Amino acid sequence: MQKNKIDLLSLVSIAKEAGLVILNFYQKLKESDIETKGDLSPVTTADFAAHKLIEESLRKLYPSIPQLSEESDETVFEQRLQWDTYFLIDPLDGTKEFINGSDEFTVNIAVIKNHESVMGVVYQPIQDILYYGDLDQSFKETKDGKVRLPLSPYVEGKLRVVSSKSHKNQETEDYIKKLEETYEVEAFCFGSSIKICKVAEGIADLNPRLGGTSEWDIAAGHAVLRGAGGDIVLFASDKRVQYNKESLVNPWYEAKRAALLKPKA
Q1: Which of 74, 198, 249, 265 could form a disulfide with 204 if both were Cys (CB 3.0 to 4.6 A apart)?
Q2: pLDDT digits (tens, 9 = 90+) for 107-145
């Protein structure tokens, strides 16, 4: 393997291994396995175990490429602004769903280059569903095989809007109601980064997020969506969401399939 050249399928393999680690904890969590972080979000022993596997596996394959994970230590956060290329990881996205026994949690691994997400893997362990892609193409892989994304074309005048299952808010609900003035809207919910992957699939057309998320929550899904022709843009803007900002908190955004994006000048 050429030094520093990242092989997408190697990230797929690592994400699937991390998924197996997480499954060892699924529906077996004890109260002592769950902690509350400073931002009041939950974290579990499964998050830390998946983080450890991903970190060690990436270091073996790509020792010179830095990593930033939701579970990284503080020294990494201090150093990251100097990086131009790095791995951005959420070892268990959708921890609330995981704790509640839902299957809507994922392993997310992205490659960030010059503030943009250029390669990503999203793995849903319970369903054994894999989404992965780069700037050229994206795929969904299940036990039945691999298909290129998106799976279906956009239907003019209709809008399938997917929002968060665990983080609903009034701003998002009001925005969806406003969309109904222009479109025939079908609204539904999913957990974790599955929402963005549903837009990449073409199962949904739009995922608005008018609330707090972190960069690692969306980076892998963003790359998959870009490979399918879509993008994640700032709310009420056509500017692409950027990464490795001073603050790792995302602004409000919309994940859109290609037909809803403004043509690039």
Answers
A1: 198
A2: 999 999 999 999 999 999 999 999 999 999 999 999 999
Q: Are 15 and 107 in contact (CB under 8 A)?
A: yes
166: how many CB neighbours lie within 10 A of its CB? 15
Domains in the chain, start-ordered, CATH in brackets?
8-148 (3.30.540.10), 158-260 (3.40.190.80)
Across 194-209, b (16+ Cβ under 10 Å) vs e yields bbbbbbbbbbbbbbbb
Task: Report which of 15, 31, 13 is spatially closest to residue 23, judged by C-alpha positions.
Answer: 15
Q: CB atoms < 10 A from the CB of 71, how many? A: 19
DSSP 3-state of 123? strand
Maximum distance among all alpha carbons in the chain? 54
The sign of the torsion formed by the CA atoms of 21, 24, 27, 32 equals: negative
Q: What is the pLDDT of residues 38-62, one digit of tens each?
A: 777 889 999 999 999 999 999 999 9
Distances (CA, A) of 192 to 61, 104, 184, 218: 27, 6, 25, 9
pLDDT at 87: 98
Residue 2 has pLDDT above 70, yes or no: no
- The sheet carrying 206-209 orders its strands as 184-190, 158-164, 206-209, 253-256, 231-234
